[in-house]
Amino acid sequence: MTSSPDLASLYQMLAKEQRPILPSGEQRAILGCGYVGEAVAKAWKQEGHQLWGTTTRRERLAELAELVDTPVLFDSTDSHSSLSFTESLDGILVSFAPSKTSHVDINHYRETFLGGLQMLADAIQQRPRETPLQLVHLSSCGVYGNRHGALTDESVRLDSLHPVNGVLAMAEDMIQSLRSESVNVCILRLGGIYGPGRDIPAMLLSAAGGVVQRNGQSVPCWIHLDDIIRGVSFAFEHNLNDTYNLVNDTQCTGQELTDRLCEQAGLPLAKWLTIDTTDRVLNARVSNAKLKQLGFTLTQPSMVG
After folding, report:
1. DSSP tag of 1
2. DSSP label at 86?
3. CATH of domain 24-196+222-249+282-292
4. What DSSP designation does 56 have?
5. Of 229, 239, 250, 249, nearest to 292 (Cα)?
6. What is the DSSP annotation of 4-45?
7. 46, 139, 193, 262: which could join 267 in a potential S-S bond, CB 3.0 to 4.6 Å?
8. Radius of gyration of the chain (CA)
9. Does 16 score more than 80 pLDDT?
10. CB within 8 A of 229, min separation 6: which ones?
11. What's the rounded mean pLDDT across residues 233-258?
12. How far apart are CA 106 and CA 219, in angstroms?
């Protein structure tokens, strides 16, 4: 009589089997598995989607293999890279971001965003024209620039004067040019991101009693990582085909926000400067009404409380 395998052998055997895809599962790719892309991958994996994910670093491939079915080494600054694997997918999240450095290299921005999107456009041109595709592109509310605190929705003309904003605006134009009868293109303009590992409220509280070396009269906007994940999934579930601000309800100056946080914590107020210390400034009360009108709700509507 043949003895049955032990549990360890059984687990090893199951690990080699093709992972089942739920009936609702789709074939999706995440182009850029950084802070946001990785979080989306975790959520989509639980939903049963078959996933591809890209990284620019070879040493991250093994780590990425725990999150996606097919990790891919892709660098939009490398002409030998290719996105041909996207040709038959149901959905693609474009989450490109330049490597973090203390100095903004505008050429690196162009290569990362515009170069990567050109490669994506080349791949999409190879798709059968009738095959449906949902594209979601993550942009930034920083493209609105300095609107002196005015209420700002998606119809406002973008700031193309600052080089970074100019690149981001061009990237939006490029992704929108891919829209067709079979390709939906949704652009989500994100606020400043906070969440696990990016505890912005704690950082602001650390300035209590001190001076923040930035203009406290500017109005920034914010979005929690959890709501980005939900916003991206909402876009895919509802086949969105337009541009939306994905921000929370906070519409106050940096000084006002810090004051509220310090008061809640019983700490002395911080003092912000009243002049700009950088040439790229977002100063706008960014509206999220357009996305909410479709039924989207926030789990983290405010950074305060």
Report:
1. -
2. G
3. 3.40.50.720
4. S
5. 249
6. PPPHHHHHHHHHHSPPP--TT--EEEEE--SHHHHHHHHHHH
7. 262
8. 21
9. no
10. 39, 40, 43
11. 97
12. 25
Which single residue is written with the structure tokens 């950088």? 278
CB 251 within 8 A of CB 219: yes
Residue 61's H or E segment, with its range, is helix 61-64
Q: Which of 81-95, 118-132, 178-192 has the lowest mean pLDDT?
A: 118-132
Which residue is it, tokens 């600052």? 162
CA distance 152 to 288: 9
Residue 79 pLDDT class (50, 70, 90 cuts): confident
Q: What are phi and psi of 254, to 5 degrees?
A: -60, -40
Tokens 């210390």 correspond to 277
Amino acid of residue 195: G
Q: What is the DSSP string of 255-301?
A: HHHHHHHHHHHT-PPPEEESS--SS---EEEE--HHHHTTT---S--
pLDDT of residue 279: 87
Distance CA 44, CA 122 (A): 26
For the chain, give every domain's residue range. 24-196+222-249+282-292
Measure CA of the first residue to CA of the last residue in the chain; give whole Å.
65
- In angstroms, the CA 74 to CA 203 distance is 33
Please give the single-letter amino acid code of residue 29. Answer: A
Size of the chain in residues = 305
Task: With both helix axes pointing from N to C terminus, report the angle between 35-47 and 225-237 in degrees, rounded to the nearest 10.
Answer: 50
Q: C-alpha 191: how far from its chain's center?
A: 10
Phi-psi region of 201 (alpha: psi -120 to 50; beta: other; left: phi over 0): alpha
